[in-house]
Amino acid sequence: MHTKLPGSRLFFLDWIRILAFFVLIFYHVGMYYVSDDWHVKSPHAGPAIEPLMLLSSPWRLGLLFMVSGVAASFMLGKSGTAGFLRKRSWRLLLPLLFGMFVVVPPQAYFEVVEKVAYAGSYAEFMGLYVTSYGGFCRATDCLDMPTWNHLWFVAYLWVYTVVFAAIMQGAGTRFAAWSDTLAGWLTGWKILALPTAMLAVLKLVLQPHFETTHGLIDDWHNHAHSFSLFMLGALLARQPLFWARVDAIRWPALGIALSCWASMVVAFAWPEAGIERPLLEQVYNVQRVVYALCGWSAIVAACGFGHRHLNADSAARRYLTEAVFPVYILHQTLIVSMAHLFKPAGLDPVTEAAALAVLTLCISFGTFELVRRVSLLRPLFGLGPQAARADASSGVPAVAVTAR
């Protein structure tokens, strides 16, 4: 049975986050088969599915940071600054530490087994891991340990949470005025144009100098992009007219996003040989603008279709809202570990990819079923006490999760 959404409740953002997470599982399975470097690689790796991977790359993380900003705005208003920071720190930092020293290490172990032919046992590797051994290198590319790998998103989200709380503390009642002003600007075509312009400028200014590292202290383009969208979500959280306007332009936004994606597929495949460097730099700048337009248009489309079709609560939403963070914590380790262990079977890539996706879903949700029932395990996976599970039924996303 479904209950229609009251005007101030944003159940559709929970659904968007849940659906984006399922995209994430397929994306990380895909990372095993593309030509880009990853923790482990398939012998069938190549460029064949890279255009499909590009379908979600421009918008997936930005959407989830924006949803996280919406959640932060609601939670801070409900808990106050001190309570908000205490709750967020407990629900983010404890799973991050647990993940770095329990969940993530198998990814690093299989990575060094494949990339540098490490022959030691897992126990011997863990002795090196916890003591920050720096000798696992290919040329100048060395593995940093301990590492957070896909849990970088949790670390960034905690930092943005602290900065947002400081901004709110300093702004006081002015934050509501900023929210109203922004919502007043974002009408009609400006919903697409103004945020795209902001994101494009950030790309043009910062991306040539700061590649994405997920290393926190040297990741300035990623921070500028992600935190801008986080703050955009926080400012627009209580602006119901904005979400209705997004709903109204969902089809044009989708069309623009798909057109940009098709243009990028052609541009990225175009041979660069023979193009002089000054012209090539201009081509890169155009691609950066198109990428920003693709990402923001896709976010608008996702929110618009979600607002139109997913504006309802249900038992499934409540279950999946609670499940998504534990499943996120587990999923990449499962994919990396199984991908490495399946290699001797010599499966064809389609069958192997399907098996990886199905087993990752089944094992991670099965683990969640155990975790949710054991009080000592719940906080390690970002779940609150069993008696305080209001986040899963509040219609306010508690934590948005994804990562590469």
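Second entry:
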Amino acid sequence: MKPEAMSTTSPPGSGVPQKPGRTILALALPALGALIAEPLFLLADTAIIGHLGINELAGAGLGATVLQTAVGLMVFLAYSTTPAVARAVGAGQLGRAMAAGRDGIWLALGLGLALAVAGWFSAPALAGSLGADGVVAGFAVDYIRYSTPGIPAMLLVLAATGVLRGLQDTRTPLFVAGAGFGANIILNFTLVYVAGMSVAGAALGTSIAQWGMAVVYLWLLVPRIRKAGAGLLPNAAGVLSTGQVGSWLMLRTLSLRIAVLATVWLATAQGTLTLAAHQLVFTIFTFLAFALDALAIAAQALIGKELGAGDKVLARRLTGIMCRWGLVFGVATGVLLAVAAPFAGALFTSDPAVRAAAAVGLWVLAASQPLCGLVFVLDGVLIGAGDARYLALAGLVNLMVYGPLIWWVGSAEHPGTSAILWLWLAFGFGYMGARAATLLWRVRNDGWMRLGA
């Protein structure tokens, strides 16, 4: 990669803001709050369920993996809408921007309803496919089924958030996500402990909270769509276009989820202790990933807007700044996690064996954070540029690297906490290292930059 000089001043008439760092922070800081709020839903579930017992925690972990996979595959609803709206805004076409957002919202509703129905009926098969049986499988099925009513709302939230990010507004998602998280904790605690619904109560509480967020987003966006003259009814061509662009991003996300599922499958094969410890480590990984992704969100919005406006110089300079910030942020979160690793498990479980195993995984995760920071920023840059096809194909290459590595880890016997150690070495450095290599290869020149709306 050959970034331009990163001085905070630019020649007159260059079109480059004097302090681009402030522009990045204006988007990234509110996005950070909103992104942290999303995994806090899962953290709240894990903390509340973890004190019920190891079987409940393991079952909820499997159920959450299924839910995250289904919803995660639909993240293109935000990732395709953000650059589409941002490019149109950069080109001065607000009506086109709002029409793209409207079509994304309709697509989200349709896909969400289909996934909710499929998830309810296929819950036992999905839990079994991850190796769950007995009481653990029962809790996994409960978590999946009581989460399905909230899936349409989750996808509506994704699409609506993408519209606002494309409009360079990351503050509104922060406020909505924060309110949703607060409601989620109250609902989950009440349904789990007061109503005695156990794992099912945590899933149902999250579903209710997600619907509240979706309603707020619609209340905010519908008037803006009307004001822009875009109309409220979907445009078939627009919905199809969003789906076509999203298909490459879905393939990119599918490769990520396959890597995650393969890791969960291996953790399950190593026993309940390793699975429970992996759930704790992966929960914190998700939390930190969303935090690191704040810069990626800024990249999506800013790179999309500047390429839409035809400013390749500023897009390159912003990319270089955000890459360095990603590395620094990764170092900072890694240091904090390394210090907290011996104590973090106590927040989720009282089982000393699970806490000891989780600490080992958290130390590995801490060491990999700088690498993760770079990966998330570059991923956001290429999403903002609309380079979805490359991201999808690179994801397949990454799986070709990770597959043999995780097979090698699973084929050996690992006593004690060494199973979680090798599991997270493979994921944190093997898989994330492959992602970093393919992303750096792409941004080594300007071939990924496509100008115009």
